[in-house]
Amino acid sequence: MDILHRRGRATAHEVLADLAEPPSYSSVRTFLRLLEERGHVRHAQDGPRYVYSPIVKRRDAQRTAMAHLVETFFEGSVEDVVATLVESSRPKLSGEELDRIAAVIAKAKKEGR
Length: 113
Known about the structure:
By secondary structure, this protein is mainly alpha-helical. It is 64% helix and 11% strand. The protein contains six helices and two strands; from the N terminus they run αααββααα.
């Protein structure tokens, strides 16, 4: 999805070329077909090729992926996700970034989430 959002549209070959550790071509095609079946992308025919483009907005795709990540790897614990992200990013986080994270948390507390 990231590749399709970045490019706007792409063939399976173009998606494959953009992957850092690419699987097989048939795996990419299968994955694109599954994304289309789930309503995340659509395709248009360009001669013999299918050209895929995202239907779901980038932010919505990020939220869906994050929700899946939280459930799969953190047993639904947002607290564990945030702690892991902050701890593993500590040397890279600036004071401004930490302030913005703290502000998001403060806003959630204020709103009673």
